[in-house]
Amino acid sequence: MPNCCVEGCNNNPKNAGGSLHSFPKKELQPALYKAWKSRKKFQSQSSPCVPLIFTEAVQGDPVFLPCDISMPEPSDKVLLVLWYREDLGTPIYSIDGRERDFSIAERWSDEKVFSNRAYFLQDKQPAELGIDHVRESDQAVYRCRVDFKIGQTRNSRVNLTVIAVASEELPDLSNTSNPSLRNTSN
């Protein structure tokens, strides 16, 4: 089973003990119970788990995090794309096409997380969140949430590993007078 941690996932430790599938007092809250029962039925018909994609980048290089924004049906359209870092509770990047065509949608980036280093490449297949000059502090699990006008919201997750670069180069010791420091592999 894929690694996942989205509400409703069968192997999510948050859902241990069946807490998602036990709704008490149905007679007190019939509307909520009906909505919960409908959600439970849908979850049993589809996979609620969100697979985790692993991506690596070298510190200082650009990185591209995939996000599937393909329409579930031709008449649908993307309304909103939200990117989250799973260790933060709020969106860190968004593309809001609710009031205009998605190709000219308003973009927003959290200054504390990306500043002006992030951009969205919607014409790629799949679309990608580009991050320039990736930093060690960018290493995290990211989630892309896509809201459609008709279709169900789609989530995808990317685990970004940043490979650190040494902060300074090693000195050239080939010409040193100390024989124990010289390279003797010649």
TrEMBL record:
Pfam families: V-set
SMART domains referenced in this protein's UniProt entry, alphabetically: IG
InterPro entries: Ig-like_dom, Ig-like_dom_sf, Ig-like_fold, Ig_sub, Ig_V-set
Ig-like domain location: 48-161
Superkingdom per UniProt: Eukaryota
UniProt-recorded name of the protein: Ig-like domain-containing protein
Native source species: Ceutorhynchus assimilis (cabbage seed weevil)
